[in-house]
Amino acid sequence: MGGLRGATPPSARFNLATALVDSHLVAGRGDRPAIRYEGRTLTYAGLARLVDRAGNALRALDVDVEQRVAIVLPDSPEFVATFLGAIKIGAVPVTLSTLLTERDYAYMLDDSRASALVVHESVLGRVRQACAGRRHLRHVVVASSGGAAPRPPGSLSFAELISAASDELSPEPTAADDMCFWQYSSGTTGEPKAVVHLQASCATPADLHGRHVVAMRPDDRVLSVAKLFFSYGLNNSLVVPFHHGACAILYSGRPEPRAILEAIARERPTVFYGVPTAYAALLAVPEREVPFDLSSLRLCISAGEALPGPLFERWKARFGLEILDGIGSTELGYIAISNFPGRARPGTSGEVIPGYEARVTGEGDRPVAPGEVGDLQVRGPSTAAFYWQKRAQTKRTFRGEWVFTGDRYSASADGYYTHHGRSDDLLKVGGIWVSPLEIETALLEHDAVLECAVVGREDADALTKPAAYVVLKNGAAGPALATELRGFVKDRLAPYKYPRWIEFVAELPRTSTGKIQRYKLRAVGGQRRPPAPGGDA
Ligand code: 3UK
Asked: What residues does ligand 1 touch, defined as CB less than 6 Å away?
């Protein structure tokens, strides 16, 4: 037996936090801006100290290697420091959406067995109850924006822990294939799956999309509509810019069009990462109401759901900028197929990024002919390892080196890929997963509802939103009940999941075996139409 048995050879060591932050100090770039937040600049040297303090604070709480640290924070230096501080000590941050319900949080805290939770006071209302009775959760750390707000009994103050901690920390010598971070992704059943990412693979999106598509440089300033807790946002605002020594502009608020426009005019980003819904919302703002100064932008990126061709054209006509649409997923780690500057083809997801391979397959995993629609599979260095404790789903998605995306695609003879929807019933709404089954389950809890089916329908911008077909127990259909049902769902699920349209029907179309024929409902509502009254985007 060799003497190295059980040890990690130095060549196979990798720590993402060291690679993204400390490397810039070693290279003499400590004075460069890393983060702009609420009018202040945090340099790479300042960020390194904050990351080290956060790592030391977690160590002081006995958070050990491989233990999960759940994060429910808005985009902020605190998010970045907790995320990278945890990684630096070999712990595993789990980034949770700030938009979820108490039930979602309880599920994810149990499923991940998080030993510590770092949560912002603004989300505590939905998180506090979820913390009670969690077997593995030992510490709840509360971050606050203003002064010292009252904290739940037994919880700790983020600010106090940070100021008590040392700003020097040597990294855990993690292996390249150690767990790095987890992110939750929705499934058809509505039960979220934790996607497990490994250390070295997490750095690769920066070198693939970041270099080949964006050609990011140290003097770039990036602004992302997608928040850090999503895989798109995490790479946009953290992994990719820090890898290249660039600056991330963070803001903690909701990505409302006016707030985005003000941030662009004030902070002058060079690269903007959006989702189709945000581009549509920006185009809908009347020019005379807000300062429209996009002159700092050299590049606009879109992902999360397909960017309709007309949106690309309207944006280009108005601002002279192309929007580069690309398809990525949490499982793929980031964007694998993308349009490139100067050769974008509107209505497509573009071409395979160097470093990835893609194939469109039919029966028996055999590639289909150019132009034919099949299942999109991708392989590349950024893909995740597996779903935590979901063996069956892992086998379906991670097939050897290939990731089965669940997307229907065609590829043209000259290598452009076009999206044709999902092979499951899942919807992308504003770039975020929505499970029809979850909405149906919520609607069925209402006394008036006998049965229902939820499908995607295109709004006036050709963007998908949920529409519900509802069979009532006894009549009384009308606009008042529709409004009530929308509110009923909003109260039970994360608010973006509510059905924008409610159609009362006498019965649902079914097969002879009783299965709901969703494709018939999709066909009925398929034509584009404006939002229903009261059904804002
Ligand atoms: C859909 C798209 C058409 C597609 C993501 C960029 O969206 C991201 O990750 P998720 O895990 O969802 C993945 C699914 O979303 N999709 C994403 N982008 C496009 N469909 N055109 C697109 N451009 O169904 C995919 O399977 O939430 C996006 C980077 C990292 C990401 N995680």
From this structure: 185, 231-232, 303-306, 325-330, 334-335, 349, 405-407, 419, 422, 428, 431, 433
